Please model this.
Amino acid sequence: MAKANAILLLVLFSLASPIAFSSDPSPLQDICVADLKNPVKVNGFVCKDPKLAVAEDFFFPGLDKMRTPNAVGSNVTAVNVNQIAGLNTLGISMVRIDYAPYGQNPPHTHPRATEILTVLEGSLFVGFVTSNPENRLISKVLQKGDVFVFPIGLVHFQFNVGNTNAVAIGALSSQNPGVITIANAVFGSKPMISADILARAFQVEKKIVDLIQSKF
Model:
């Protein structure tokens, strides 16, 4: 009986244990600085010789500088493996987000990472939407010093509710979290998704879809 219980516990542990794993594989050595120019393509980046690693491989300057917001009133400065090669295999990255007054970081997802956001300046209305069929919006207004979590893969957004600039820092649980901005993906794909398909999906007239697609 004891043996059977032990086997059952082992099976349950083997089924449950992957849930605790991060989205990126664990490193197998101290450092694995990405060789971004290597033509070999793997799930991640090939490591360069550790003996050739230098401090610059683990460094990124200027995150204190504000960047000019784009057409929707925000600018995201990413610091992932493409900017810091030493992040390769470490499973983390970060972003600085600058918001113009009433600017937004529009609805988007990170397919490979959970994000934890800290407001440094200003007030932000933030939220994420749970999966079908619930599609429940979980949202909150954040003030300076507040922290909010966006679970991996879920659509989320931030909106500056103030008439002054706002700044936030986000940490992400992947060296290369990726980003899918919903409007860009749906209306700005190359080649474009058929307007007839989108008109039916959004239950609007085709001319409305044509107008939106023209802006992308």
Q: What stands out?
A: The longest strand covers residues 93-99. The first helix runs from residue 2 to 16. The helical segments are 2-16, 182-187, 195-202, 206-214. Confidence is low (pLDDT under 50) at residues 4-21.
